C-alpha cells in the first residue's frame, strides 16, 4: 500500500500540473502517441556483441537473471514455501521489468545502463546467494578466515580502482581548457570547432530575428545552439525520429507548408553526414520544395 501511495502522489501531481498549464494534450501527443513514430531501432543483439566487455557480459547475464527470478517465484508459488526472500525476489523482478522498457526500441549502451539499474542489482543478488551457497558447501575448518581475506582483497582492489579513476578524471578536468564565454556552458570543455559553430550560428539567428525573421535549425545539434541564446523551438531542438509527436515527419512537413516567408530553415549540407535518427523525409522535403538562399558553417539555409 505504501508503494502504491508513493507512486500515485507524484503521478497525480504531474497530471495536475499538466492540466493547469494546458499541456496535457501535448504530453499525450509526444510522450504516449508519439512513441509509434520511432522508426529508428537498435536491436538487443547489438549489446550482446558489443565491443565493451562489461556491457557484453551484463547484456547476457540480465535476461538470464530475470528468467531465473521468474522461475524461482513460480516454484515458490507452486510449492507454497514463501519466505522473507520471496518478497525481495518479487520486488526486484517487478521493478526490473518496469524500467527495462527504456531499452526499447533503441538498445544502445546508454539506454541499456539506464534501463537495467535494478536488473544489475538483481544479478548481484543472485551472485551473492550463489556465493553463499558455495560457501556453505565448502568443507574447510578455516574457511571463514579465507573468506575474510579474499573479501578484503577484492574490496581493496575495487576501492583502489575507483580512486585511481577518480584522480585521473579530476586531473584531466583540472588541466583541460574549459569554456568561459558561451552562456550556460561555462567550465565545460567544448571543442574549438563546436565552439566556433555555436558562436557563428547564434550570431546569425540573433541578426535574423532583428530583421523579423524566424530561424529554425533542423538538426540533432540544434539544442546546443539554442541554449546559449535562451531560445526554445519545441520540435526542432531535439530533431530526431520519435521526438516530433504522433503525426511524425508528415506532421512537420505540414507545419512547414503553412509557415510564411519570414522563416528560414537550416539543414546540414549534403556532403556532411546526418545523425542516424534524423527525420530524413522532412530534410528532403525542404531540399526539394524550398529555395536555398545561403550557406553558413555546416548548414544550408532555405526559405
Strand content: 5-15%
Largest sheet: 4 strands, mixed
Global geometry: elongated
If you compute it from the alpha carbons, what radius of gyration comes out, rounded to the nearest whole angstrom?
26 Å
Give the SSE string: HHHHHHHHHEHHEHEE
According to DSSP, the number of beta strands is: 4
Q: Oligomerization state of this entry?
A: single chain
Mean pLDDT: 88
Largest sheet, spatial ordering of strands: 1-2-4-3
What is the terminal-to-terminal distance?
58 Å
Assign the structural class, choosing from mainly alpha, mainly beta, alpha/beta, alpha+beta, or little secondary structure: alpha+beta
Unreliable stretches: none
Helix proportion range: 55-70%
* Tally of separate helices: 12
Provide a short characterization of the protein structure.
60% of the residues lie in helices and 6% in strands. It is α+β, with helices and mostly antiparallel strands and 303 residues long.
Layout of secondary structure:
Elements: H1 2-21, H2 24-32, H3 45-48, H4 53-79, H5 84-100, H6 109-115, H7 117-137, H8 143-175, H9 192-210, E1 214-217, H10 222-226, H11 248-258, E2 263-268, H12 280-289, E3 292-296, E4 299-302
Parallel strand pairs: 1-2
Antiparallel strand pairs: 2-4, 3-4
Helix pairs in contact: 4-5, 4-7, 5-7, 11-12
Amino acid at each position: 500500500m505504501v508503494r502504491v501511495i508513493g507512486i500515485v502522489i507524484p503521478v497525480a501531481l504531474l497530471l495536475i500540473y499538466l492540466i493547469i498549464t494546458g499541456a496535457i494534450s501535448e504530453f499525450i501527443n509526444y510522450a504516449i502517441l508519439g512513441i509509434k513514430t520511432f522508426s529508428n531501432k537498435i536491436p538487443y543483439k547489438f549489446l550482446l556483441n558489443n565491443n565493451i566487455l562489461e556491457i557484453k557480459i551484463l547484456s547476457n547475464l540480465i535476461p538470464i537473471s530475470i528468467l531465473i527470478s521468474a522461475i524461482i517465484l513460480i516454484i515458490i508459488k507452486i510449492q507454497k514455501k514463501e519466505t522473507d526472500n520471496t518478497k525481495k525476489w518479487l520486488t526486484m523482478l517487478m521493478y526490473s521489468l518496469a524500467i527495462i522498457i527504456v531499452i526499447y526500441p533503441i538498445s544502445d549502451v546508454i539506454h541499456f545502463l539506464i534501463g537495467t539499474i535494478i536488473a544489475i542489482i538483481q544479478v548481484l543478488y543472485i551472485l551473492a546467494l550463489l556465493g553463499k551457497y558455495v560457501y556453505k558447501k565448502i568443507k574447510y575448518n578455516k574457511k571463514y578466515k579465507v573468506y575474510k581475506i579474499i573479501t578484503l582483497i577484492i574490496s581493496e582492489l575495487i576501492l583502489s580502482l575507483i580512486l585511481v579513476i577518480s584522480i585521473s578524471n579530476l586531473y584531466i578536468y583540472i588541466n583541460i581548457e574549459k569554456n568561459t564565454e558561451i552562456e550556460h556552458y561555462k567550465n565545460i570543455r567544448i571543442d574549438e570547432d563546436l565552439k566556433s559553430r555555436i558562436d557563428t550560428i547564434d550570431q546569425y539567428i540573433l541578426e535574423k530575428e532583428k530583421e523579423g525573421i524566424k530561424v529554425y535549425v533542423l538538426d540533432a545539434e540544434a539544442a546546443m545552439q539554442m541554449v546559449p541564446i535562451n531560445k526554445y523551438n519545441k520540435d526542432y531542438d531535439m530533431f530526431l525520429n520519435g521526438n516530433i509527436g504522433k503525426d511524425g515527419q508528415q506532421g512537420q512537413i505540414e507545419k512547414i507548408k503553412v509557415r510564411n516567408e519570414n522563416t528560414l530553415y537550416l539543414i546540414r549540407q549534403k556532403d556532411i553526414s546526418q545523425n542516424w535518427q534524423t527525420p530524413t523525409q522532412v530534410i528532403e522535403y525542404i531540399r526539394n520544395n524550398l529555395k536555398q538562399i545561403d550557406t553558413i558553417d555546416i548548414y544550408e539555409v532555405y526559405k
